[in-house]
Design a protein that fits this description.
- This protein has 388 residues and is an alpha/beta fold.
- The protein has a domain of 131 residues: Peroxisomal Thiolase, Chain A, domain 1 (3-Layer(aba) Sandwich).
- The protein is 35% helix and 17% strand.
- Strands 3-2-4-7-1-8-11-10-9 form a nine-stranded mixed beta sheet.
- The longest helix has 16 residues.
- The protein is globular, with a radius of gyration of 19 Å.
């Protein structure tokens, strides 16, 4: 075990008018430390997950955390970026600092301010996380990238639009009771499967309900070494972590296979000496519903091409054999890029400790987190185990 989560703070995701990047950071940083039962002076190192890319004028956000406490002046603070996996990258860097005995207590903040950017510019900023030489064409977007993945999957395994609608409906139902979620509304399966004025086609086979939301938000957590965690009021240990990067150009890989995701899960299970059957829940990266469907297969829940079975038979429902995205996932909770991975770890830790409120699954225990950057390029898995 390389470290433990001992405290957290989570702001509401959505369009946070009147709050800039600094406000979002400050709103969660000190509260996470307080939640851990520690003081700002106890923090040895700070990591900030922030994609940036031009959403706001302010860059170089690492020292914005210092605005929350004078005790953090002269503490080492580092900005981390790895596309949509930025938040998990920051968490894993914090764990690395603890494992190297460079720090005993680490504060990790994930943040993004996206909604102040005009809508016609958002897609272009996000496409910076693609292989620009080949994939960033006029009018291109990540919705277009995942529409291409969806079409290839359909060609190989048949039209799975209904399975994707079930994923959307599941996640919106779960998100309806998440107080941090951007969209707290149970839309229902029929709405999600039916193309309409309120659920139009975005690109290719993707409907609006197949796509995650543009969001503002921040989340923070505190990591400590194992011995320190045992003296605190709550502790969720990292039973294992894995980080795998794949080729950036989609032309160099089978983009339907999600091989980086598959390998990251396999490495994490091997390190933890566990299998998927040992997990009680998973928070996974549903930037688009097709991504969650492919991740079922990559984690080993179903064979290749049979991810739809998990939705049709209710396996991934909140009451199912492996609840997936009981928080509502990115689909309902929102997807402020730098905050997403930190949020996913907090949601999983809340579940593992039985403190998730209306989101709580039955019989919590070992929890898995999968966060990815790009189209399964940067792949991060964490397996969390509650200690107290």
């Amino acid at each position: 075990m390389s470290g433990c989560i001992v405290g957290w703070a989570h702001g509401k995701f959505g369009k946070r008018e009147g709050l800039d990047l600094e406000d979002l950071v400050v709103s969660v940083a000190a509260d996470a430390v307080k939640d851990a039962g520690l003081t700002p002076a106890d923090v040895d190192e700070i990591y900030v997950g922030h994609f940036g890319g031009g959403f706001v004028k302010q860059d170089f956000p690492a020292s914005l955390v210092l605005q929350a406490s004078d005790a953090w002046r002269f503490k080492p603070a580092t900005r981390v970026e790895n596309a949509c996996a930025t938040g998990s990258a920051a968490v894993h860097q914090g764990l690395n600092a603890i494992a190297a005995k460079k720090a005993r207590v680490v504060l990790v903040v994930g943040v993004e301010k996206m909604t102040s950017t005009p809508g016609d510019q958002v897609g272009g900023i996000l496409m910076k996380a693609s292989y620009v030489k080949e994939e960033d064409q006029p009018g291109s977007s990540f919705a277009g990238v995942f529409a291409q993945i969806t079409q290839l999957y359909f060609q190989r395994y048949g039209d799975q639009s209904d399975a994707m609608a079930r994923i959307a409906a599941k996640n919106h139902k779960n998100g309806s009771v998440n107080p941090y979620a951007q969209l707290q509304k149970d839309l229902g399966y029929e709405f999600c499967r039916t193309v309409s004025d309120k659920n139009p086609i975005v690109v290719g086979p993707l409907r609006r309900t197949d796509c995650s939301l543009v969001s503002d938000g921040a989340a923070a957590l505190v990591l400590t070494d194992f011995n320190t965690a045992l003296a605190l009021k709550k502790a969720v240990a990292f039973r294992a972590t894995a980080h795998v990067n794949d080729y950036l150009p989609m032309s160099r890989r089978d983009i339907v296979a999600f091989e980086g995701c598959e390998r990251a899960w396999a490495q994490a299970f091997a390190a933890a000496r566990l299998t998927l059957a040992d997990l009680k829940l998973v928070e996974t990266h549903d930037c688009f519903t097709i991504a969650e469907l492919l991740q079922y297969e990559a984690m080993g829940l179903t064979p290749k091409g049979q991810g739809a079975r998990a939705t049709a038979e209710g396996w991934t429902e909140k009451e199912g054999r492996l609840p997936v995205n009981a928080s509502g996932g990115l689909k309902a909770k929102g997807h402020p890029i730098g905050a997403t991975g930190v949020s996913m770890h907090i949601m999983a830790a809340m579940q593992a400790t039985g403190t998730a409120g209306a989101m709580q699954v039955k019989n919590p225990g070992l929890a898995g987190v999968f966060n990815m950057g790009g189209a399964a390029v940067a792949n991060y898995v964490s397996i969390l185990e509650p200690l107290r």
